[in-house]
Design goal:
This protein starts with 16 loop residues before the first helix and ends with a helix. The chain is rod-shaped and about 195 Å long. It is 78% helix and 0% strand. About 4% of the residues have low confidence. The protein is mostly helical and 399 residues long. Helix 1 packs antiparallel against helix 3, helix 3 crosses helix 9 and helix 4 packs across helix 6. The protein contains nine helices and no strands. Keywords: Coiled coil.
Amino acid sequence: MEKDTFTWVDVEDHEDGHEMDKRNEIDILKRLGGLEEEVSSLRQENFIKQEDSSLIQRVKDLEDEVGSLEEEVSGLWQEKSIKREDPPLSREWKGLRKRVKDLEEEVGSLEGGVSGLWKENSIKQEDSSLIQRLADLKVEVNSLSHSLIFGLAGLKEEVGGLRHEKSIRREDSFLRQRLADLEEESIRLRQSLAQAQIDLNEKISGLRRSFAKDQADLKEEISTPRQESSIKREDSSIIRRLAGLEDVIENLTRKERNKQDETNAQREYVLHLWSKCPPSMMQGSIIDATHEGHIRADIQAIIAKEESDPDIAEGWKAAFLDRYGLQWGVDCEKGDELKSVDAELIRVFNIRAHVLHGWGETRTEILDICDQWISHWRSSRTTYIPSGEYRKLCQLYYS
């Protein structure tokens, strides 16, 4: 019986893995059915008879008898006294030859029967081998079917995971871009705030100068001889004007002082943590936006602490070197070294201080960029960082 060719369908070459899996399963079942029919046909066509022990014994006896007759004939040929023309002996000789021939034919027939038995026995062995082969094939097909099912399930999960990961990457890229845009917007707001602070300081200075000038003018007017009634009227107007100016200056000064005091208190707290807490403990709640670097405010806080408590100031200087990579007394100590530095490069110093201890997987890449541009500032007083480098830094920092 000719075996059908088994066609295997590769699931990975098709989009619909479920449909291909079903097609493979149907082909396997057809193949098993064909093999079972083939074995059943062999069993029906090659029914094995039991060996006939008496037939085998009969063959042996006939062979012995033939041997005896041949010896007897040979003896007769060797006897010289026997005459060939003796009719009775000739007839006996012919009878013996005929009997020997019949026995030889019977032996040949029996040998054919024995050969048939051996052939049937061989067929039986082949049938047993075919049954064992069929059993092995069933086991192999079952194993292959299970492997295919599990492989399809794993492939579906992997495809689903890849699709999910691809979606996450697209969202992650969008979020990084959004964070970079927010960072740029934050920088612009900081610059606007700094400019507003400068304008406010200039306005306060202008008001103070105007107030001083009004006071001088008032003294000059009072000292100038005038009529008493005219002096009283002008004096009342000037006093009201001076009172209003004093209120404005006092409010602005109070707001500026409160803001500066709040910033100083916060930076003193952070510098104290940096100088007292081991780097291995600088994680968890300590690593947050509140405890980011603020290099300009930290410089002013250290300068102020040098006057009130030099010992504490020395600890702060060591923490300053660790966080910002700048040595006090060499890179900065006056307080105006970073006055002309762009806001983006100031942000580089502050990010380095934040990620130095207890950061995630991007820590090394962030520190490499920060240290590179801090080194440029130390060696050549570079006041800016290129926009491409800064964007890359922000993407790593907010990823």
